[in-house]
Amino acid sequence: MVFVGETRNTEFYDMCIRSSLNLHNEMIWKILRAPTLFFDTQPVGIVQTKFSTDMGIVDKYLPMTLLDVMTVSLQ
Fold first, then answer.
1. Which residue range forms the structural domain that includes residue 6?
2. What pLDDT is stored for residue 26 in this prediction?
3. Is 0.70 surpassed by the pTM of this model?
4. Based on the structure, what is the number of domains in the chain?
């Protein structure tokens, strides 16, 4: 029983890390592909603050949401 619980936790942790990395990479790609006009009109600090805030929210709420989805799906 302990082995099953440990396996589930490890898989869940890996899934959260992969999801966070995918979202981070997608956000970076979108910012890098933004038109130059966007960077001319927005200060770098604003872009950096918004990006880090959004990633912080994702990292905070993604594991709880994925756990809820897994629980509901299994029930």
1. 2-74
2. 92
3. no
4. 1
